[in-house]
Amino acid sequence: MFQDFLKKDKKIAVVGLGYVGMPLLYHLSKKFSTIGFDVNKNRVEELKNGKDSTGELAEKDFLNNGIEFTNSAERLQEAGLIIVAVPTPINEHNLPDFTPLIKSSETVGKNLRKGAVVVYESTVYPYATREVCVPILEKFSGLKCCKDFFIGYSPERINPGDKVHTVDKMTKIVSGSDEKTLNFLAEIYGAINNNNIFKAESIETAEAAKIIENTQRDLNIALMNELSMIFDKLNLDTKSVLDAAGTKWNFLHFEPGLVGGHCIGVDPYYLTYKAQEIGHHPEVILAGRRINDSMGEYIAKQTVKKIIKSGQIVLNLKVLILGITFKENVGDIRNSKVVDIMNELKEFGIKLDIYDPLADKNAVKKEYGFELKDRENLDKQYGCVILAVKHKEFIDNLKAVQDFVKQNGVLIDVKSALEKGGLRKDIAYWRL
Asked: What is this structure's pTM?
């Protein structure tokens, strides 16, 4: 079966062309005949025109790649392998929101041909592929899983903005509903990453592996955040403590900070939901989540304290926030915890100017209700500046960041980007 795809007699379709699906599709297109499907017409059109608003691909990547972009679901009928890479967010109650996964499964089911393989890359809790997705595929296709079509799960490991750990260089976990499907998927993915494949013993094992990757990071960052609170009360600099502790050979190098985005701040809730469903109350994981979800409010309150100590009046003070995306050097604003800082500061009557060179103004306005400023429209100086995201533009010119702070003003350094030795003497400085 693999040879049919290698000879381009059969096609591969990727459903969902965002941060996960598009890089995967690009690398698959180097070896196979591919179709890229997304329900967002504007996204399809920009990709057809050789542009990627996520910043993951450059214009040159679209030259002669042979990808057929479409928002017509009927084109999925041409595919012998369909890979689903849609978001799996959480709702306002921190519960799994399977809406994108369910709708995409319905679409795939309506256009699923006999003998095809469907692979999910979206993050889910263990057993979700079989319990949530398969019944939908069967209902809308009229076909029977493991008889008329086959399934697999291969968790995505995309790190937005990371140009080192790309699809073609990372280890890919694959799993299948049977051994034949497992081996087939190992060949497909292996063709684009030099056979750097790990075969999971079951679909559920692969699902669980994915979800604990980010849960582990979440808990380690939560520990650093709690330590930063403790050290702050002890009048100790957290970064200095971590630098010292980091000289031990087996010390794990994590930093305190905001935990947002579509993975680390979301995935643990999928695991805790499933755990509670089977009667286990996850204490450690939820404790870590509570700490990380509270950091925006904590930073805002520390900021207000520093403003008061500087002798400034909090009400109507002009504050500049640099960066609103969930991490550095990407334009992704999903689940940005910088917004938590902003919302809390507004409660104190503070006036905010927000500048981010990478975030889309319309998307920020639509999602969070805040207006982004252009660089040329910023004030010359502010009573307080919060360096919230370590974008390259800010890090390459840290003097300009300090210049935005007026005399006897406050500088809040969320990611400890500045060195204390290079600070202006007339400003109050605080970092996590």
From this structure: 0.93
Dig out the tokens for 368 from the structure: 């969070």
Q: What are phi and psi of 150, to 5 degrees?
A: -135, 155
- The answer for residues whose C-beta is within 8 angstroms of residue 122's C-beta and 6 or more apart is 16, 20, 84, 85, 86, 87, 88, 100, 101, 156
Q: Which residue has the tokens 């996204």?
A: 43
Beta strands in 183-287 (DSSP E): 197-199
Burial class (CB in 10 A: 0-12, 13-18, 19+), 64: exposed
Catalytic: which of 145, 146, 263, 384? Answer: 263
263 is a catalytic site residue = yes
The model's pLDDT over 293-319, given as tens digits with 9 standing for 90+, comes to 999 999 999 999 999 999 999 999 999
Domains and CATH numbers, the chain: 2-205 (3.40.50.720), 232-261+294-431 (3.40.50.720)
Question: Do 184 and 1 meet the contact criterion of CB atoms below 8 Å apart?
Answer: yes
Question: Helix 134-141 to helix 99-110 angle, to the nearest 10 degrees?
Answer: 30
**Under a CB-based contact definition with an 8 Å cutoff, are residues 220 and 35 in contact?**
no
